[in-house]
Write a structure and sequence with these properties.
This is RNA-directed DNA polymerase from transposon X-element. The protein is mainly α. It has one domain (about 1-90). Helices cover about 50% and strands about 5% of the residues. It has helices spanning about 1-10, 25-40, 50-55, 60-80, 85, and strands spanning about 100-105, 110. Strands 1-2 form a two-stranded antiparallel sheet. The longest helix is centred in the first third of the chain and has 19 residues, at about 25-40.
Length: about 120
């Protein structure tokens, strides 16, 4: 598991902060790769469900990881001193399930409450 957490997981989540609004098909490809790697590491049989492997190893899915990293990234950049960086947060769409910001009625954006 040390190999997974120190070498493989950083490669899977490289630049994950900007994947928050990516299409589900793209994120599913990375999730399949994570599932295959965890199966190889644990030598799990074909009939063992992927969510059971994740629970036993206490490893979050790539989709949950992307969501968490994306929210953290956007929240940190809302009040950034550089206006070019702080304006990038405005591209988040409130209707998207990974949206980390919501539009204020008076204009501008604020951090959305985390979804449980």
């Amino acid at each position: 598991m040390i190999l997974y957490k120190q070498v493989i997981l950083p490669m899977l989540t490289c630049a994950a902060q900007i994947w928050g609004l990516a299409a589900k098909t793209h994120k599913k490809k990375i999730q399949r790769l994570q599932n295959k790697i965890l199966r190889i590491l644990t030598n799990a049989h074909w009939y063992v469900r992927n969510d059971v492997i994740h629970q036993d190893l206490k490893i979050e899915s790539i989709e949950d990881c992307i969501q968490k990293l994306s929210r953290k990234f956007c929240i940190q950049n809302i009040d950034h001193q550089n206006p070019a960086i702080s304006k990038q947060v405005q591209f988040a769409q409130p209707s998207c399930p990974y949206s980390t910001t919501v539009a204020n009625p008076g204009g501008g954006y604020r951090a959305a409450a985390p979804q449980s």
